[in-house]
Amino acid sequence: AGAAGFSRTKINVVLMRGVQVGDRVNKGEPRVTIDSVELGRAWSVYLSTAARVEVARQAWQRESELLAARATSSREAQEAEGNHRTAQAELDAARSMLLTFGVADAEIPTGRRVGISHSSITLLSPSTGFVVKRDASVGQNVESKDTLLEVADLSELWLVAKAFERDLGLVEVAQTVLVEIPTYPNQQFKGQISHVGDTLDEQSRTA
């Protein structure tokens, strides 16, 4: 969970939802709430543009009715239609900007946010797993490049092994293997080979 979508303007961590290294989390659960002036500006642009779209729509509808009654010119009706299309394009751009910040699509049409300000956004866990790293605290200023939490799915792990050149004939893709490691001396872990390296290390003569 990072602050993707934000630039290097001030981003402040305002809430950590009981997240500690080792905690199990589920995909989509709210984990970190951050506050950004930049996000507040994006919402302001969206809401003001949405208001302009509605005004332009009403003007277009009014001109269309007048044109049908031959009380206005086709030029004025076309101009009203063009103004509405321009405003709608600007609204679509403002909406896309909010999506890049991670605002939920369902929140955008009304602009209403329950229990949270327009300058705040809650980051959700990207996957189910365990918190293996936490680099954020309440009150901390962060940037878009910062990783606030790292969640890893530990239910399935990759094992990278080195096979000597003389043993490569015994190793092939899709082969089932049993692995023993010193940390768990009485257990065997079953896996399947997914890839065999194409080159050898020059010094160790392993792949």
How many β-strand stretches? Answer: 9
Strand order of the largest sheet: 4-3-1-6
Helix/strand order? EEEHHEEEEEE
State the end-to-end distance. 34 Å
Q: What is the helix fraction of residues, given as a range?
A: 25-40%
Based on secondary structure, the structural category is alpha+beta
Structure description:
With 207 residues, this protein is α+β, with helices and mostly antiparallel strands. 29% of the residues lie in helices and 23% in strands. It contains 2 helices and 9 strands; from the N terminus they run βββααββββββ. The strands form 3 sheets. It has a 4-stranded antiparallel sheet with strand order 4-3-1-6. Strands 2-5-7 form a 3-stranded antiparallel sheet, with no helix packed on it. α1 runs antiparallel to α2. The longest helix has 32 residues.
Feature tags:
three-stranded antiparallel sheet; single chain; elongated; four-stranded antiparallel sheet; 2 helices
How would you concisely characterize the structure shown here?
The protein is α+β, with helices and mostly antiparallel strands. Helices cover 29% and strands 23% of the residues.
Helix-strand layout with pairing:
Elements: E1 11-16, E2 24-25, E3 30-36, H1 37-68, H2 74-100, E4 120-124, E5 129-134, E6 141-142, E7 149-152, E8 176-181, E9 184-192
Antiparallel strand pairs: 1-3, 1-6, 2-5, 3-4, 5-7, 8-9
Helix pairs in contact: 1-2
